[in-house]
Amino acid sequence: MHDLQDLPLGRRRRIAERLVSGQAVVATLLAREFGVSEDAIRRDLRALAREGVCRRVYGGALPLSTASAPFEVRSGEDRARKRALARAALALLRERQTIFLDTGSTTLRLAELLPRDYGLRVVTNSLPAAAALMNRSDLSLIVIGGSVNATVGGCVDARALAELRRFRFDLCFLGACALSLRDGLAGFDMGDVDVKRSVLDLSSASALMMTNTKIDTSAPFAIGPVTDISCFVLEHDAPENVVSALRAAGAEVRIAETPDS
Question: What is d(CA 45, CA 43) in angstroms, rounded to the nearest whole number?
């Protein structure tokens, strides 16, 4: 009698548990572990991809990013870790810069921490970030308008794209839902990805603050390769192989301090 894990459904369930926990999987290693053919594993991964558990890539599968949740949910998650990333990103700022703050819960933490003596011009399509800054008399705030996408937390429609083209940014703080060294940066909303792509084209430099939960994950719409980003701000315990690979690709990598408990 076969153990449950050796049967197709039991094996598939165990693979799904790994993907849901945020682990990428490799078909050859799974085949060896479960004592089955790679064809059997590929069938498992195709089935799990159809169920929305993962995205197939060459040689295996990547978990979908947890950033698919609505902004209201994401804004309450990992607050201390996101504040630590934002504090590390502050060192990138210079006086009198024109900066762009993208939608996202981590960029909201940055908005809350922006220094008061820099004379910044802040452009944003994020309504929560704009709300955090609207009473600040020490900076100039410009809000990109359009139809509000509540899931994203801001404006990402055609009007927002048209308004963006009026600006040039010294530095943009981009948001992304997923990062893969092989497949690059990706997002879950096509309009949001279009805005991010446009912002990168309009910026002299770019920074991306990213929690570990988004690393080695996938999302359906491509933003661009990791080489499009000037500086990555990662957590204190970010995977060493990712840090090394990003630096080898030419990016600056800043590591945040251990978050407050």
Answer: 5
